[in-house]
Structures are given as structure tokens and as C-alpha cells.
Amino acid sequence: MTYAYPSTPVKSRVREGKFGEAILPAGEQPGPVYVYDAATRIWHWVTMLSIIALCVTGYFIGAPPPSIGGEAAEHFMFGYIRMVHFIAGMVLGVVFLMRVYRVFVGGPHARQIFYIPFWSLGWWKEVMDEALYYLFLKKPKDYVGHNPLAHLAMFLMFVLPTIVLLLTGFALFAEGAGVQSGWYKAFGWVFTVIGNSFSVHTWHHVSMWIVIIFSMVHMYMAIREDMTHRQTTVSSMISGWRFFR
Ligand code: HEM
Ligand code: HEM
Fold this sequence. Notes:
Elements: E1 15-16, E2 22-23, E3 33-34, H1 38-62, H2 72-75, H3 77-105, H4 108-111, H5 121-134, H6 148-177, H7 182-187, H8 189-194, H9 197-228, H10 234-238, E4 241-242
Antiparallel strand pairs: 1-2, 3-4
Helix pairs in contact: 1-3, 3-6, 6-9
The protein binds protoporphyrin IX containing FE (2 copies).
């Protein structure tokens, strides 16, 4: 798969190699590349905001603050905490489904993190090369989309645990809504698959921690790569364009 981006002058176009590596035009300033479309960018930032809201409210659900005196109905504080958690959870779920739709219609960069070329030895070699770069044993390479190590981390530490978070979250919500509810009819099977309510809570927690660890490392890497690499990073998730210096 070799892509040329028509919006940049023919001579300074950056091409994309088999594993997403950037093939820069020799001897001249490479033009910018449009990588992430508006749908992916809006999804990214909405997802980030919902995850922050879910972490803060989830923390209080898991470790509730001491009770406030008086009638519960007069302040309803814990109710609001749970309500924000459920609204943010539903936003996360809806935009995730919309993002899955983009996998089919959004082109190669919208597809990347939902699929890993597991059977390609060449791709695993690129993952190793990137790991060796982080160990200061190899020079960094430039990529048009995600570098292969980031791609692997996004699949294993974001896409898969987010699916678990959504399924367990909606199952717990269904439990609260009651076994007669439509929610339970849609998500009650999660209890059968995972075992019982306690295990569903545990899976909700474990996948949460994987996504939190991913997010912290990811933010550090995004800013660090922007400063240390020839390619820009943060701009690609704000304007969609990646520049090469
Ligand atoms: C990044 C995403 C999420 C994080 C960080 C998160 C975090 C948490 C935490 C820490 C708890 C407390 C668990 C416990 O007491 O065992 C919790 C409970 C819960 N979460 Fe999430 N959650 C996320 C996504 C979701 C989603 C998508 C839903 C679906 C609506 C959801 C619904 C629930 C429900 C229903 C509970 C139990 C509430 C209760 O028992 O009062 N969560 N979540
Ligand atoms: C909860 C926090 C966050 C989560 C879960 C998250 C998740 C993700 C995911 C899944 C992607 C891949 C997008 C795709 O290919 O469809 C991505 C890309 C990206 N994110 Fe985040 N993100 C978070 C916060 C941030 C923050 C705060 C920044 C800015 C410093 C950031 C900057 C980027 C950039 C620049 C990319 C594109 C990387 C590249 O290919 O160069 N993210 N993020």
C-alpha cells in the first residue's frame, strides 16, 4: 500500500510504505500529510473527556466519600456522581460505535488501531525496531500514521480494554436497572460469560487501569515525539495534518 497525498505539490509529497513508514522526498522540504479526518479527531477528544469524567466519578463510586447529614433527597450528591458516570459511559459507548463505523468507511488511518497485522513478520520487526529505539539502541524512524509500537499499544491497551469497559459498564448498569429491564436483556449475558457481579466489577476495574496506564504513557509519548522527532505529532490530532521538519 503506497499512498501519495494529492494536496501537496508532486515533488514534495510524502509517500507511505508498507508498514506506514514515511518515505520522504530526497533533498527537499517534505510537504504536510493529512492523516486523521475530522471524525477521528472529534472522537479522540470526546473520548478523552468522557474517560476523564469516568475516572473521577468512578473513583468516588469505588471509594465513596463520607455521607452528608440530612435527607439524601435534599442533596442527592452520590446520585449526581453516578449520573455523570452513566452519561459519560453512554457518550463513550455511542462515540465508540460511531468510530467503529469509520473503520469501514474512513480509510487506512481510521482502520489502523482496530487491526494488527499479526501474521506479518516484517511488521513485528518494525515493532522491535521501535522498541530498540526507545532503548536508545536504534535511530528513530518517521511514520505517516502511528508507529508500529504505538499501534500495538493502542490495539492491546486501548481498543480491547475499552470494549471490556463498555460491556462490563453496561452490564453493571443493567444490573442496577433490574433483571426485567431492556438493559438486562441486552447486557445480562455478560454476567453469564464472566461469572458473577463481583467478577464483572473486577473486570471493570482491571480494564480501567489498563486504559489509565495507556493514557498516561500515551500523553507523555505524544508530546515527547513532537519535540524529539522529525515529524510533528500533536498537530495530527488537532488539525489532522502532520508536518515533517
Ligand atoms: C474509562 C471508562 C470507565 C471507568 C474509568 C470506570 C470506572 C468505574 C469505577 C472505578 C467504578 C467503581 C467500581 C466498583 O465499585 O466496583 C465503576 C462502576 C460502575 N461503572 Fe464504570 N467506568 C468506566 C466506564 C463505564 C461505562 C462505559 C459504563 C456504562 C454505562 C459504566 C457504568 C458503571 C456502573 C453501572 C458502575 C456501578 C455503579 C454502582 O454500583 O453504583 N462505567 N466504574
Ligand atoms: C484519556 C486520554 C487519551 C486517550 C484514551 C487517547 C487515546 C488515543 C487513541 C486511541 C489514539 C489513536 C487514534 C486513532 O488512530 O484513531 C490517539 C491518538 C493520538 N492522541 Fe490521544 N488519547 C488521550 C489523550 C491525549 C492527549 C492529552 C493528547 C495530547 C497531548 C493526545 C494526543 C494524541 C495524538 C497526537 C495522537 C495521534 C498520534 C500520532 O499518530 O501521531 N491524546 N489517542
